[in-house]
Amino acid sequence: MSPVKIARIAHVVLYVADPEASSAWYGDVLGMTVVARVSDGPYKGGVFMSFGESDHDIALFPEEPGASKGREFEHIGLELASTDLDDLRKMLVSFQEKGVRLHETLDHGVSVGIYFYDPDGHMLEVFHQTVPRSGGAAIDQLSRNKGKADLVDLAALTTPSGSRAQ
């Protein structure tokens, strides 16, 4: 049993041929807005889009040249019903105890997430939201940090003041 309750499916990340063209389509057809365009790092060329409350609901990443259809799916983000990063740390311990294949832990500036694989190789992410969605705070932060994705050691993660992050 999971030590922390999953609150909801929070976002979907898709591989697409042209993130800019796709973002225009999602904007026109679904009324989404671009929150951030990624200029560097592992998600370079990606576009984060929102329906207006979450920092992102759909992210569009450039697919590999010559990628076959059916590989558009990158990962599913699962938001924890958590109060602080200790809940995310509990998930990490649980994953390690269960032998879950881990990929990486990333700090996005709005959330910190553990990326891992299911038995069929599908990537999932469990994350703790560090910047509230209310009032557009998370949207503003993701826009300012341009889709930040920094590798972190969850056990050692601290706040800028030097204390352990909450």
Please trace the helix and strand order, writing H or E for each element: EHEEEEHEEEHE
State the share of residues found in helices, binned by percent: 10-25%
The number of distinct helices, counting runs of at least 4 residues, comes to 3
What's the total count of β strands? 9
The CATH class, by name, is: Alpha Beta
Shape verdict: globular
Looking at the structure, the CATH topology is: 2,3-Dihydroxybiphenyl 1,2-Dioxygenase, domain 1
Descriptive overview:
The chain is α+β, with helices and mostly antiparallel strands and 166 residues long. 21% of the residues lie in helices and 33% in strands. The chain has helices spanning 19-30, 85-98, 137-145; strands at residues 6-16, 33-37, 47-50, 58-62, 73-80, 102-107, 111-117, 123-129, 150-151. It has a nine-stranded mixed β-sheet, sandwiched between helices. A hairpin with a 3-residue loop joins β6 and β7 (111-117). 32% of the residues are buried. Residues 159-166 have low confidence and may be disordered.
